[in-house]
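PT: before anyone asks, these are the final sequences, not the draft ones from last week. 668 residues across everything. Please model them as a single complex and drop the result in this thread when it's through.
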Amino acid sequence: MRTFLKVIGGLVVLGIIALLAIIFVPVQRTPAQTALADDWQPEEGHGEYAMRLSDCMACHTEEGGEPFAGNRAIESPLGTIYSTNITPDEETGIGGWSLADFRAALYDGVRPDGTHLYPAMPYENFRHITEEDVRAMYDYFMNEVEPVNQQVEETALSFPFDQRWGLRLWKWVALDDPGFVPEYDDPVLARGEYIVEGPGHCSACHSPRNTVMAQAGLQAGDPEFLAGGEIAGWTAPPLRGPQSAVRGWSEEDIAMILGTGRNAHAALNGEMQLVARDSSQYFTDEDLGAVAAFLVGLNDDVEPVAEDPGETETERLLASASPDMGLGARLYIDNCNACHFVDGRGADEVFPELAGNSLVTAESPRGLLTMILGGSQLPSTALRPYRLQMPGFGQRLDDEEVAALASFLRSGWGNSAAAVDAATVADTRASLE
Amino acid sequence: MSSKTPQTTRRVFLGGTAGAAALAGFSSLAQSPDTRPDAQAVPLDDYSPEFLSAAEWTFLLAATARIIPSEGDGPGALETGVPIFIDRQLAGEFGTAADLYMEGPFVPDATPQLGIQSPLTPAEIYRQGIPAFDDWCQRNAGAAFHDLDTDAQDSALQALADGDTDLAPELREFWSLLLQNTREGYFADPMYGGNAGMQSWIYIGYPGARANYLEWIGRDEPYPLGPVNIAGERA
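LR: through. Structure below.
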């Protein structure tokens, strides 16, 4: 009996020691993955461009705020996380950070004092950014960004998520090896893969989260990579597989929507609008082409959408304008038809197609409902400056009507997604208010 | 009938509706204080005017009933709530000339092409115009406008339209305003208080805020669906 108690006591002591070690022993920071000369200097513009590739701006700038001064509220399943001030201000920003400090934030998600960053900061992906891009960005933030003295709102998640030391355990599960090794020999595909997997951190939204809320796929070879997720009430559609949002799209289509927010098939919505506004519209044509080639390659094995399905049953019904048609179809004529037309194919670069539209047919109807209720406005981009807008119909349609309309869209023109009930609409409506 | 008041030009209207309805959305309309997207058609008897006095209201009921009479094929101004529309417009930004250029010079005998020539707001024109015109009716036809029989009312309105009454120069827009606002109340979306039950749209076969029926262009048969209003109601 005494031996047993000793064993138990010993285990408890060991457990406490392990816990204290997890909390207090400093994290081993990932070193540079490529040895660069000490006097290595980025070419002019390299740092700003790497920042654009990484889209630091969208999250680290609040609406109407100074660039990179942080304080943007980021809704996460765990609560609201406020982005930090990453201007080179000594007191409230990252002024005084060393290159190693900066790299550790990107690669390991730790601040210089050892505090763990919440994975709203996509270090799962940023740990694949090259040393050249890290150095160039460091140079950019230290020397080209204006310091802004702004204390950001303290992130205060509820217990246990406020115990940041727990993230250390999470990282053991979530993080893979640092550095970037391409799957492709082709330099264009490898460049596209680098941007998508690394700085572009596409996987942060477009890959599902696993049971511990880590990205379920981080690289092209992982089957769950870019298999679809959800972000802030919007659909981050699958970019591969049978439900791929880009199946059947050409490289030009993909480059176009990233560069301008719109193409012949679709318009960006939700958080992806920020990506086009602050990040992808600044990509060089070569990089847009590389990303597009990589994504088209991921969809090689997917059945493309029929280019012209001919006149569908849905189109015939809508064109009849018959007073006997069901509520969903009638609401489409009364509210949607003016822009999206009876064939559900809209107009190139202006009104998105609804036939085969990934937002419409997503497994979760939430993104579609968010769109119908609240509308959407495209960002202005250099090539397509007009901020095209779809109005919200939340005032005009009640929950039953939105449900009927959404169900109609999800089953019209050959779409075959599940119907939507009024309770889901009410739920979405409440989350928008 | 001359039309001397500032009118929405076709170009502004087309640009405005295409932009607002198709792209910018319906919200900009709904935010204006003189719109009530939730308002049901109010019977005239139950309506308490916001701007007009009892005497002015009595005049307006009588005058709009002659401009778009109830007897005839379609609904009249009274069944469609036109006086309610006008009262609300006068109580709101239209009445206070919020969107009009109101600095001088005002030249009463300027040609109509030079636009409105009154230093008065639309609300002030109604407020001064109604008693002035009633007074003219009293002197020339023996009774206030609403007490005249319909033939006499028509003659009085004709005189007003022809500029044959002795209204002060700053009231010269009274008739054209009254005519224009009556038409607007008859045909505007019900959210503004007139066109109750979309009756005028049903009457002329206008499908309302549906905005598109491309497939029906060139088909020599009536469009089967009734109208829909901006609030999404169907009639």
